[in-house]
């Protein structure tokens, strides 16, 4: 019975990629000659190469003062919006190319030393924590025609943010705004690469449709800005800009369905700043609790069929993690954490949000027909 259950659950594979479209072969075309002629924005930034604070960067950028026309917004911001290509090449046993795929998105240069912020899902296969990272390379394409390889610095799947770095001089840096001052109805301009590099540097405009929208993305709930400025695959990681030419959001996802239009979403820049700052300095967000399990939800239907309790079925346990040290193992079903019932992966995330790395909680398990309680200390997510 357990073997059949495991086979059933293992067969449930849910894969989603919010990012840029994946293409078999895309030829990079340069941005328009108009953008190539645009003057770069000169920034007065900290000379500390490795640990400059994003808040300092925002404070030192050039202030524009008043409202700009959309063409002036584009001239100011577009030079700092780059294209990002993630190339995955998996060789076969005799070292010949077995399969190739590419994913393309956007990014924002926010530091003169070459640091670029983007969405995690745009570059996730380059993350050393991903088993495909050794097969993955990153390329960055600038509006002035330059292109270069990039290094993965850090990523945070929970907030869908990442930082990569390029080694080039004379980089135009975006000015960061204050998303806490946004009002519904004000101008919003989206700049990025919808559908890949062929349409690099595309500009769409609209308004801020709503703020503080809670949007469910896979097993996470993100706090996002809603806009009717067109956002499409490939825009991920690009800039949502206000009427002063300041980046106030990172374009992340759209909701698309027959009959629906104008539902694009961006991560508020004030939410992104502290995360990106830590990714730049440490490569991860410090102090975040980590359990170290991969699991599937036992629904009410599965519970009745197999005569087991609802909870989270453990598919795998990360070596050295809090779960591993607590003795939690593959095949267990988590019923409660810290006295709170667990029936969905979202339940686990909600519980984790109340604790920090180093905290210890009781975990109620179901194993081989019996319930048991273990003490688990959250490790640090890296």
TrEMBL record:
<dbReference type="Pfam" id="PF13365">
    <property type="entry name" value="Trypsin_2"/>
</dbReference>
<dbReference type="InterPro" id="IPR001478">
    <property type="entry name" value="PDZ"/>
</dbReference>
<keyword id="KW-0472">Membrane</keyword>
<feature type="transmembrane region" description="Helical">
    <location>
        <begin position="7"/>
        <end position="28"/>
    </location>
</feature>
<feature type="domain" description="PDZ">
    <location>
        <begin position="286"/>
        <end position="369"/>
    </location>
</feature>
<dbReference type="Pfam" id="PF13180">
    <property type="entry name" value="PDZ_2"/>
</dbReference>
<protein>
    <submittedName>
        <fullName>Serine protease Do-like HtrA</fullName>
        <ecNumber>3.4.21.107</ecNumber>
    </submittedName>
</protein>
<dbReference type="GO" id="GO:0006508">
    <property type="term" value="P:proteolysis"/>
</dbReference>
<dbReference type="InterPro" id="IPR009003">
    <property type="entry name" value="Peptidase_S1_PA"/>
</dbReference>
<keyword id="KW-1133">Transmembrane helix</keyword>
<dbReference type="InterPro" id="IPR001940">
    <property type="entry name" value="Peptidase_S1C"/>
</dbReference>
<keyword id="KW-0378">Hydrolase</keyword>
<dbReference type="GO" id="GO:0004252">
    <property type="term" value="F:serine-type endopeptidase activity"/>
</dbReference>
<keyword id="KW-0645">Protease</keyword>
<dbReference type="InterPro" id="IPR036034">
    <property type="entry name" value="PDZ_sf"/>
</dbReference>
<dbReference type="InterPro" id="IPR051201">
    <property type="entry name" value="Chloro_Bact_Ser_Proteases"/>
</dbReference>
<keyword id="KW-0812">Transmembrane</keyword>
């Amino acid at each position: 019975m357990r073997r059949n259950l495991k086979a059933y659950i293992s067969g449930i594979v849910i894969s989603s990629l919010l990012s840029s479209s994946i293409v078999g072969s895309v030829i990079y075309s340069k941005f328009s000659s108009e953008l190539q002629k645009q003057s770069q924005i000169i920034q007065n930034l900290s000379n500390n190469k490795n640990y400059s604070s994003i808040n300092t960067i925002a404070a030192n950028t050039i202030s524009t003062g008043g409202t700009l026309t959309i063409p002036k917004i584009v001239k100011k911001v577009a030079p700092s919006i780059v294209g990002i290509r993630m190339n995955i090449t998996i060789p076969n046993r005799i070292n010949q190319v077995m399969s190739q795929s590419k994913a393309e998105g956007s990014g924002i240069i926010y530091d003169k030393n070459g640091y670029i912020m983007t969405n995690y899902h745009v570059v996730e296969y380059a993350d050393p924590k991903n088993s495909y990272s050794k097969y993955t390379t990153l390329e960055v394409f600038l509006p002035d025609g330059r292109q270069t390889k990039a290094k993965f610095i850090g990523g945070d799947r929970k907030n869908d943010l990442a930082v990569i770095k390029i080694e080039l001089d004379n980089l135009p840096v975006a000015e960061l705004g204050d998303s806490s001052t946004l009002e519904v109805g004000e101008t919003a301009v989206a700049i990025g690469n919808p559908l890949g590099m062929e349409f690099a540097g595309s500009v769409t405009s609209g308004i801020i449709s709503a703020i503080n929208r809670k949007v469910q993305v896979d097993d996470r709930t993100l706090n996002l800005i809603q806009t009717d400025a067109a956002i499409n695959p490939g825009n991920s990681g690009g800039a949502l800009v206000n009427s002063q030419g300041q980046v106030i959001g990172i374009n992340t996802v759209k909701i698309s369905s027959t009959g629906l239009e104008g539902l694009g979403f961006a991560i508020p820049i004030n939410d992104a700043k502290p995360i990106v700052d830590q990714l730049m300095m440490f490569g991860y967000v410090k102090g975040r609790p980590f359990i170290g399990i991969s699991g599937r939800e036992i629904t009410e239907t599965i519970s009745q069929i197999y005569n087991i309790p609802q909870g989270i079925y453990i598919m795998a346990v990360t070596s050295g993690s809090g779960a591993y040290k607590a003795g939690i193992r593959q095949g267990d079903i988590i019923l409660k954490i810290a006295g709170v019932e667990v029936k969905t992966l979202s339940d686990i995330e909600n519980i984790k949000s109340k604790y920090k790395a180093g905290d210890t909680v009781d975990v109620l398990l179901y194993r081989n027909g019996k319930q048991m309680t273990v003490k688990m200390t959250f490790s640090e997510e890296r």
